[in-house]
Amino acid sequence: MSTEEMNSQTFPTWTFDKACPSMEWTPLSAVSVTLTANVTADQLSSTDLVILPVESSPSGSEDKEPSSALELKTLATQMDSAVTAGALSEVLQEHAKALAKRGGTSPAVRVIVGGGKTQKYMLLAVGSADDDLKGAGWALGKAIAASCIAEKKLGTVTVVLPETYATHETVMTDVVTAVYQSLYADNRFRSKKKPVAEDLTAITFASEGSICDASVVVETGKMLAQGVIMAKDIINAPHNVLNSESLAETAKRIAAESKDGTMTCTILDKTECEKRGMGAYLGVARGSETEPQFIHMTYKPVDGNVRRKVALVGKGLLFDTGGYNIKTQMMELMKFDCGGSAAVLGAARSISQLCPAGVEVHFIVAACENMINDKAYVPSDILTASNGLTIEVMNTDAEGRLTLADALVYADKEVQAEKIVEFSTLTGACMISLGKQIAGVWTDSDDLAAELDAASKATGDKTWRMPMAHEYAEQLESPFADLKNLGTRFGGSITAALFLTNFVEKGKPFGHVDCAGPIWEDGKGATGWGSKLIVEWVKQQGQA
């Protein structure tokens, strides 16, 4: 095979002298999603897999045996009698424990129908109609997608949902989003592709009664899923593909493809950053393979009506070796140190298509790598941030907060955002406190904390408010500079948050979200955490 032929079959990467200029995007699954009202048993006869709902008894029935608290509804009962010869009822009894929890599924029942074709039937636990439906869509959508992936050679799937769910626009949007994001497969770097549900062409969500507006639900769900997939793509990409320059190219492309030109993108190069005195960010970037790229994307509503201006800042370390305080473990995972920027740019992609009203949004990423070379910063260096504060470098592996310092000053002073929320994979200490599924939130603003909590609960991107123990700030005092970039090992996630508060005007609503845990799942890769949460929070700001 010639070199030219080999190059045509591989993903673009760096050459010896030049870094990779762009990152390939994973497209949304081509599966068609439709919504159908007033479905009948006859309409289900032609689909490969039928997923039927199992409802729980209302709250207060906890003392019942699991199977007695579950019931098949009208259409499921008809299909059980006319098609599966009671097999669905048997499955309900045998797998009652799994079906007692929303999102639980049963094994498939196989039935031979006309022409010798095999049709499959499966049960899906939807919970009780009396339950709070918040988060229901995510659980159901993930379960449906998992079933489509597990059951091989499916072309068409019909999912019957109770009318209570089918007429709830938020629930159905969440279902569609979860399905599309769960059908994601990162095949960008494989010579032999491993697609998921490769035979699947269509999923129909059906209701025995009414159903909500399909065009709104499906299009919104797709746009939200695209943001999650973008976040996954950014984190999953290896460093020889994704560097500060290819991340900047990704941001430019998001803006260029925005609906009605509502998003713009400006990239500040090293010279522009020097003019602004971004010594903390540029200090880290001195060791980078590629030139630093300070990304600033702006979304403005097409009608020009802005009630609030907000900034979202994402940590954009494309690879973190630790610098001269080199990491001794987990370095192979350090491509995920751009997890904050992934959440922010993923949200930017969704927002650029959803076009929320009433809010101007600034997306800011100070992109670079934390590497080692003859120019790289070293412990004991003193860096000057763009607000004039000097910082003694105690450890080069506490670099994220240095890049964020100048990004926050920019959001505060140059953008003049009314609220600032920053996302970063900042500390292992947060993972020790909250585990790998929950992000920590630090803020002095009770209102902002409540807003982020509401967005978390609405989207399933879990967060937990942590204490802003200002008495710990003394750990950051330096005998030579205004601040140190690291405190003691105790309360490390708190002192990291306190460090960042020095770069936002006192009293301005500012939130720090440490997402080191939930952005990555061992053995699977990026989760896409944070993109949906940010979109939900932005929508809140436009409505307030």
Automatic annotation (TrEMBL):
<comment type="similarity">
    <text>Belongs to the peptidase M17 family.</text>
</comment>
<dbReference type="InterPro" id="IPR043472">
    <property type="entry name" value="Macro_dom-like"/>
</dbReference>
<keyword id="KW-0031">Aminopeptidase</keyword>
<dbReference type="GO" id="GO:0070006">
    <property type="term" value="F:metalloaminopeptidase activity"/>
</dbReference>
<dbReference type="GO" id="GO:0006508">
    <property type="term" value="P:proteolysis"/>
</dbReference>
<keyword id="KW-0378">Hydrolase</keyword>
<keyword id="KW-0645">Protease</keyword>
<dbReference type="GO" id="GO:0005737">
    <property type="term" value="C:cytoplasm"/>
</dbReference>
<dbReference type="InterPro" id="IPR023042">
    <property type="entry name" value="Peptidase_M17_leu_NH2_pept"/>
</dbReference>
<feature type="domain" description="Cytosol aminopeptidase">
    <location>
        <begin position="395"/>
        <end position="402"/>
    </location>
</feature>
<dbReference type="InterPro" id="IPR011356">
    <property type="entry name" value="Leucine_aapep/pepB"/>
</dbReference>
<dbReference type="GO" id="GO:0030145">
    <property type="term" value="F:manganese ion binding"/>
</dbReference>
<protein>
    <recommendedName>
        <fullName>leucyl aminopeptidase</fullName>
        <ecNumber>3.4.11.1</ecNumber>
    </recommendedName>
</protein>
<dbReference type="Pfam" id="PF00883">
    <property type="entry name" value="Peptidase_M17"/>
</dbReference>
<dbReference type="InterPro" id="IPR000819">
    <property type="entry name" value="Peptidase_M17_C"/>
</dbReference>
